[in-house]
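Thread: quick sanity check before group meeting

JM: Hey all, I'm pulling together slides for Thursday and realized we never actually wrote out the predicted structure for the chain we discussed last week. Dropping the sequence here so it's in one place. If anyone has concerns about the input, flag it before I start.
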Amino acid sequence: MYPVFDLLNGSRITEAYASECLAHGVVAIHVTVNNFSAVNPRPTLRDSLNELAACRAHYRSLGQVARIVECYADFAKASAQGKLAVVLGYQNVPGVERDLNILELHHGLGVRVIQIAHNVRNLYGDGCAESADAGLSGLGRELVAELNRLGIVIDISHAGERTGQEAIELSKHPVTATHANAYAVCTNVRNKRDSTLDALKKNGGVIGLCYLTPLVRPGGSTPAHADVAAHVDYVRKRIGIPHIGIGSDFITDQPGERYAEFLKKPEIYGTWPWRFPVADLADQQRFLSSLGELGLTEQEIRAVGRDNFLRVFQATIH
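JM (edit): ok, ran it. Output follows.
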């Protein structure tokens, strides 16, 4: 069984699901704080803190099977305890506006991943749905420096191309696209173009290839393992195995109404229901095994499943 550090899992995390993760090799997951109660891609400060409080209370209640990661050593501690390591993060800057010093409080409460922009423009930069693709603002450049100082992993999954590339160039730590695929394979604006992939390689960063149907293959038909493998193969040839991970974007046991806001943009998110090419946690192991057919060694499959993302966190979080 291959160990997996899933850098974006949107499933409903119950004790049963956490146990199922561990039973199928998933040793760590990153979860979205601002989507904990309901999907909220543009949280205010009040929203972000309310959800963080609720999220922390929830994972305390799962203390028998899960452990929140606050420093790199917590990954090993969770493993030794037979628990799922849980990384808390936001898929947008959590409502601090120009007061970046407030991020110190989020860090103190366990937040270890923050995304610069989610689809649309914010104070820090453009999202991937902005046609202007204006890149980072001056405040966004300050944000990158502050996230580096705090030891919070930078995510560019939903950021615009220029925003992502400029963040990568400025960051002293490896940058992630926690859940995105290769634009050259599937021309969805949520996916990353070659120039961003090349920048990630230079920075030591990692892209978490995901199973969300409209990001895997254009058109309406359900993709298969081979379609996800095509992204692995492309990114491997472009920038190498050390820069590939898994960001499943699983949404197990979540109701469709959670995603109503996203489904207003069918050009990005397609139509409901999404039928993932990698169906579930058990199928994920079958998919990883199939990567041997691309010529990946056992060590390389383990790197894709877990080790590459662990390297990023080892280099970044305090």
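AS: nice. The chain has a mean pLDDT of 96. Residues 179 and 198 are 17 Å apart (CA to CA).
JM: adding both to the slides.
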